[in-house]
Each structure stands twice: as structure tokens, then as C-alpha cells.
């Protein structure tokens, strides 16, 4: 046995080296631009419904170069990734990198002068502003899209037809939360409530905490997860569960979940492309931002990228599951540049 | 009781020759027989328990692999390594991540090997057995169990900020080197300690110096063990995400690092990003990415076995 492995081993080593070399070679050819990569273009599978992005308006015509570092919210990441991907086709000489340190982590790096642009799923906090000021980092923000926080229950839940903002607070808040559904509303059954919530580090949590819970925090017996897919699975598998997360995750799991229309005084409204866009789905539709360092914006490639961003984000945000702002708001954001 | 005894005469007779000896009172023989049966039942039960514990690991791994292959097979295409990340799952690949991982391993392996084996040689061959040496030993063993995120924080403070290397390939590689170093030192020490005393004595008897003894008698003999330790430690490093996220490895990178100070990403980070996306197509991509990572791990483990056998044959 030993001997056989040993004999095999010699050939195996050569094979291993060959594989590694081949891998490096395969990856090393064909330059570093664009998603298309090497010689053979990927045949797009029909399941992804890849809408061609031929109609995007061009940015500037001259070839630029340089690095643009972006970090921040994982919620905003798909939008910025889409923009960076399209921009890479436009300006292959500019190397755009995007990280996912979270909104808070992103601001920490941003105010330390380490990044040029920060993705944020909430406005910058006062203490973060102070940190930026201390380091002399000046910035401006651009609103780029809406995300509709969707409150969902299990598919088999037949009693929740809508919830008011007060009822939401009674279910989720940390101080004396409702233990059973009939404590929320008398007509609901006396079943225990199981709560699923994004983790306290996420901008999604921050927004919900601020708008619905008056900053009191989510109840401690909730199941917290940084991964929204875990929340989806949790609510889909538990008859008495309720949870909330970004609209894109509801959109992808429509057949497994039941969305709860929210009543903030003007009648129940369910989140949808239209109700989020026209502001009816309030208070749970929230804007997401990018923060641009003024010093970085002086650089031609950053200026060009930011312009490209605001010109194209409408189509690209919709493509990755977010809701674009109304046209006049984009015009207002463009006015800031 | 008599009846039960007669029911299983074959077992009884086969197992215990003692009990068959003449002149033993009937009751005692009966008790002996029951003890034997009981012991054998315990033996059998434990056999099953140990088999079950072995199978638990194997079955979980098998289930995991089956699940991942079912999800990822359709996406396990050449595009996975030739394409860069994309918002469209059909065009997304992990080329920058695969190359990042390979580069990182190519940097970590020599660094960790030289530092790790050097430290092990010093501790085993040169250092005394004093209090200081024991303290160092304890330190290294403790470091081997420190959670990886702690190394990330260390790397961020020391390499990224203090050495001002930025969020670069070299900062990541140095952090990973620190992470695997204790494991390699401990493994190399074990290997060096396992070299028979007689080899050293023979070398000294021929008039060899300490370095000649270490380099020509001890290290060649310990080499297979050291290599196994190094490669197993590297396999651990391949799958690490937390410390690299901490030092700022990125997610969206559409170019390959050309020099040591370039930004980079690695496979586990790309996989994690795909897993947390909303669209199921990205989850399939993540599964395919995991398959690729598993294959890389298997190749590395295979290399460990092959190298060990190659060098063992030489001694």
C-alpha cells in the first residue's frame, strides 16, 4: 500500500504542479478587464434573464486610469458592483474595487482616508461625521436608490392580513414584547411569536430600530442573523414566525413567504416596486447612499466614475433588485455634482 | 438460568476455556458465564459506538459533498475560473479570487516554512530546557489555538497600519503566515523530536558539528513529518475568511494582483459573498466555488501524502 502510494506520488506531484501551472496560466491570460474575461464568451443561461445593457449612456470619451477604492454596506454592494462592472467596460484602465465591511465599518475606513467612496444603507451618524472632521475628510452624499424593508410571515399564516406600526413595535421591541400573537391583536390566535431579525451591526437593523422601535432595540429572544437568507429560511420554516429584511430577498422568495402590508395611518400598504418608488410604502422604504470624499472627487477617474454612477444607477439598481428613485430626485442628485 | 445456559452452549464453549475446567461448582461456573456474556455485550456495544462515531464524521462529509455537488454541478464550468465577478450569475466567475488564493499560498508557504522550521530547530536543538524555553513553548502552543479573527486584528494593526502595507496581497500573506506559524512550529518540533537519538549520536561520533548534524542527520529524517504539518496548516489557511476580511481583502476585484502591494481577494470571501446574495443562481455559484475549494484542498492533502512518501523512501 505504502509503496503504491509512493509510486503514485511521484506522478501525482507532477500532475499537481501541472494543474497549478495550468490554473495560473488560464487565469493569467487575457488582461484584467471586464466580466467577459478570456477568449471564449460565456453563453448566458436563460435562467438569469440577463437583460443586455446596450442602452447605457456613455461617460466621458477619453481613456482614464487609476484606482478607486470603495467599501461599506453589503446592502448597497450589489448596486455598486453592477455600476463598477459596467464602468469597467467603459474605462478598462480604471481599477475599481468594492469591499463589504458594512456601513459602519465602511465609514471607519472612509473617515480614515483609506477609501474614496463609501457605500451606506443609512445616513452617516454624528460621531462618524466627527471622526471624518478630525481627519480632515470632507465628503458629500448621493442618494442612489430605495430599499423597501419587507415584513414577512410564514405562508401558512392565515390570520395576519396587515399590521400597524404600533403592532410592529409591540412584536419586535426589546421592552416587554408580545409573547403570543393574541397580545398583538385580540383576533389573532394564542400562538407564540417567533421573531427573526437582521444582526445589530447591519444598516437594515439600524433603520428598523430607529423608525419603528424608537431606538429601543429588538427583543433579545429573537433569532439574529447577518445573512438574510437565514432569515428567509427561518420564517419559511416556522408557522408562527415573523421577520424583516431587504426587498430583494422577499422578491426572490415570494413563493415561500407572505408579505405583511404595513399601516402607518393611511391604510395598509404592501411593499412593491411602485409603492416603494412613489413613497406610499412608508415608513419602511429607506434610501441608500454613496458617500464620496471631496479630495478623491478632484481626481478625474473618481469624478468620471461618480458621474457614471448617478447616470446609470437607475437601470442597474432595478436590475439587481432595488427600487430606483423618481427621475426628479436623480436630477437633484446630479445637481450636487 | 439453566435453560439459558443450554441455549447458547456454542458461544459459551468457544469463549471461555476456563469455565470448562472440571471440579468447578455449578453456581460459580454459571456466574462466570454471565460475566463473560456481559463483557462480550459491552464489547460489542462499544464496537458499535465507535463505529458510529467514525461514521458520523464520514456521513456528514458525504452529505455535505452530495448537497454541494447537486447545487453546484451545473455551474462548475471553466467560466468559474476564467470570468471575473459579475452582477449576472450567468457571467460571474471567481478568477481574481482563485488567482488571489494561489498567489497567497505561494507567498505563505515559503515564509511559513522557513520561519516555522527555523523556530522548531532552535527550540529542539539549540535552546536549553530552562524556564524561558518552557515559557516560549507554552506561548507557541497557546497561539496555535487562538481564534483566527485575532490574527486579523493583529495583521490590521501591524502590517496594514504600522508597516503601512495597506490592504495588499503582502499584508494578507504576512497575516496568514502568522496564523499558520504556531501550527507548523508544533508539527516540526514533534517531527524533530521523533528522530531517534542514535542518529544524532552517530553523527557526533563521526566528528560532525551541531549544524552538520542538524542539517544532514536530523532534518532529512524529520522532513516528511515537517512537510505534512506545513501542508495541513496551509490547507487551514486556504479556507480562512475572517482574518482577511479584517485586514480588508475585497469582494469585487476585476483584475489580478500584479505586484505585492496590489489589492486582492480570495476564494472563501467570494463564496461568502455569493451565499449571502438574494438570488438562488448565486447560491449555485457559491456551491460550485466550494467544490473548487474542496478540490484545491484535496490536491494539497494529496501533495502532502505524496511528498511524505517520496522523502521517506530516501532515508
Give structural notes.
The complex is a heterodimer of chains A (337) and B (315). In chain A, β7, α7 and β8 form a beta-alpha-beta unit. Chain A has 13 helices and 13 strands. Chain A has two domains: 64-147 and 288-336, 3-Layer(aba) Sandwich (D-Maltodextrin-Binding Protein, domain 2); 150-283, Periplasmic binding protein-like II (D-Maltodextrin-Binding Protein, domain 2, 3-Layer(aba) Sandwich), CATH 3.40.190.10. Mean pLDDT of chain A is 81; it is low at 1-60. By secondary structure, chain A is of the alpha/beta class. In chain A, the strands form three sheets. In chain A, strands 2-1-3-13-4 form a five-stranded mixed β-sheet. In chain A, strands 8-7-9-5-10 form a five-stranded mixed β-sheet. In chain A, strands 6-11-12 form a three-stranded mixed β-sheet. Chain B is an all-alpha fold and 315 residues long. Chain B has two domains: 2-73; 79-312, MetI-like (MetI-like fold). Chain B contains 13 helices and no strands. Chain B has helices at 2-7, 9-15, 26-72, 79-82, 95-126, 131-143, 148-162, 169-193, 197-205, 210-238, 242-246, 267-275, 280-312. In chain B, α8 (169-193) crosses α10, α10 (210-238) runs antiparallel to α13 (280-312) and α12 packs antiparallel against α13. Mean pLDDT of chain B is 85; it is low at 1-21. The interface between A and B is large, with 66 and 50 residues.
Amino acid at each position: 500500500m505504502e509503496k503504491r502510494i509512493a509510486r503514485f506520488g511521484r506522478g501525482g506531484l507532477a500532475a499537481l504542479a501541472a494543474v497549478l501551472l495550468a490554473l495560473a496560466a488560464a487565469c493569467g491570460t487575457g488582461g484584467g478587464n471586464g466580466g467577459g474575461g478570456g477568449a471564449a464568451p460565456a453563453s448566458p443561461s436563460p435562467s438569469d434573464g440577463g437583460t443586455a445593457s446596450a442602452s447605457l449612456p456613455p461617460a466621458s470619451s477619453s481613456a482614464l486610469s487609476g484606482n478607486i477604492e470603495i467599501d461599506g454596506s453589503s446592502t448597497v454592494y450589489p448596486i455598486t458592483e453592477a455600476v463598477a462592472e459596467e464602468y469597467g467596460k467603459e474605462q478598462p484602465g480604471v481599477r475599481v474595487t468594492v469591499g463589504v465591511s458594512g456601513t459602519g465599518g465602511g465609514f471607519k475606513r472612509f473617515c480614515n482616508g483609506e477609501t474614496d467612496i463609501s457605500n451606506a444603507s443609512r445616513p452617516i451618524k454624528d460621531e462618524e461625521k466627527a471622526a471624518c472632521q478630525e481627519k480632515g475628510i470632507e465628503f458629500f452624499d448621493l442618494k442612489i436608490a430605495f430599499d423597501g424593508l419587507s415584513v414577512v410571515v410564514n405562508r401558512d399564516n392565515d390570520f395576519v392580513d396587515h399590521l400597524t406600526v404600533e403592532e410592529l413595535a409591540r412584536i419586535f421591541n426589546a421592552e416587554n414584547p408580545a409573547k403570543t400573537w393574541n397580545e398583538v391583536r385580540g383576533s389573532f390566535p394564542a400562538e407564540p411569536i417567533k421573531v427573526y431579525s437582521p444582526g445589530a451591526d447591519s444598516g437594515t437593523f439600524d433603520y428598523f430600530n430607529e423608525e419603528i422601535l424608537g431606538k429601543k432595540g429588538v427583543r433579545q429572544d429573537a433569532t439574529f442573523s447577518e445573512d438574510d437568507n437565514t432569515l428567509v429560511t427561518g420564517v419559511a420554516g416556522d408557522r408562527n414566525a415573523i421577520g424583516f429584511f431587504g426587498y430583494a430577498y422577499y422578491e426572490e422568495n415570494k413563493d415561500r413567504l407572505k408579505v405583511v402590508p404595513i399601516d402607518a395611518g393611511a391604510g395598509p400598504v404592501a411593499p412593491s416596486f411602485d409603492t416603494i418608488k412613489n413613497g406610499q410604502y412608508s415608513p419602511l422604504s429607506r434610501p441608500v447612499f454613496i458617500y464620496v470624499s471631496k479630495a478623491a472627487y478632484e481626481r478625474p477617474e473618481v469624478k468620471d466614475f461618480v458621474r457614471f454612477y448617478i447616470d446609470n444607477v437607475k437601470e442597474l439598481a432595478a436590475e439587481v433588485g432595488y427600487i430606483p428613485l423618481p427621475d426628479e430626485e436623480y436630477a437633484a442628485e446630479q445637481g450636487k455634482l | 438460568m439453566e435453560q439459558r445456559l443450554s441455549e447458547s452452549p456454542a458461544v459459551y464453549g468457544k469463549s471461555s476455556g476456563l469455565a470448562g475446567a472440571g471440579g468447578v461448582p455449578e453456581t460459580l461456573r454459571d456466574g462466570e458465564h454471565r460475566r463473560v456474556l456481559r463483557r462480550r455485550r459491552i464489547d460489542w456495544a462499544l464496537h458499535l459506538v465507535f463505529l458510529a462515531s467514525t461514521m458520523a464524521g464520514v456521513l456528514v462529509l458525504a452529505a455535505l459533498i452530495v448537497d454541494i455537488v447537486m447545487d453546484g454541478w451545473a455551474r462548475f464550468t471553466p467560466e468559474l475560473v476564467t470570468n471575473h465577478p459579475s452582477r449576472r450569475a450567468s457571467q460571474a466567475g471567481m478568477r481574481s479570487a482563485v488567482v488571489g488564493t494561489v498567489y497567497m499560498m505561494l507567498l505563505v508557504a515559503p515564509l511559513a516554512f522557513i520561519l516555522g522550521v527555523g523556530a522548531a530547530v532552535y527550540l529542539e536543538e539549540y535552546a536549553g530546557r530552562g524556564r524561558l524555553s518552557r515559557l516560549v513553548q507554552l506561548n507557541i502552543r497557546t497561539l496555535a489555538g487562538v481564534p483566527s479573527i485575532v490574527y486579523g486584528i493583529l495583521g490590521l494593526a501591524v502590517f496594514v497600519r504600522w508597516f503601512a502595507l495597506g490592504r495588499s496581497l503582502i499584508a494578507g500573506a504576512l497575516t496568514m503566515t502568522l496564523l499558520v506559524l504556531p501550527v507548523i512550529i508544533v508539527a516540526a518540533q514533534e517531527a524533530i523530536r521523533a528522530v531517534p537519538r542514535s542518529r544524532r549520536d552517530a553523527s557526533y561520533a563521526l566528528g560532525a558539528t551541531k549544524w552538520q548534524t542538524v542539517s544532514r542527520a536530523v532534518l532529512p529524517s524529520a522532513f516528511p513529518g515537517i512537510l505534512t504539518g506545513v501542508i495541513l496548516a496551509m490547507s487551514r489557511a486556504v479556507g480562512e475568511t475572517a482574518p482577511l476580511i479584517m485586514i480588508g481583502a475585497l469582494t469585487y476585484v476585476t483584475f489580478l494582483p500584479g505586484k505585492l502591494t496590489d489589492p486582492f481577494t480570495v476564494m472563501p470571501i467570494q463564496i461568502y459573498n455569493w451565499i449571502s446574495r438574494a438570488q438562488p443562481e448565486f447560491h449555485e455559484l457559491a456551491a460550485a466555488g466550494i467544490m473548487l475549494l474542496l478540490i484545491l484542498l484535496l490536491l494539497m492533502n494529496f501533495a502532502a501524502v505524496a511528498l511524505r512518501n517520496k522523502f521517506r523512501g530516501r532515508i
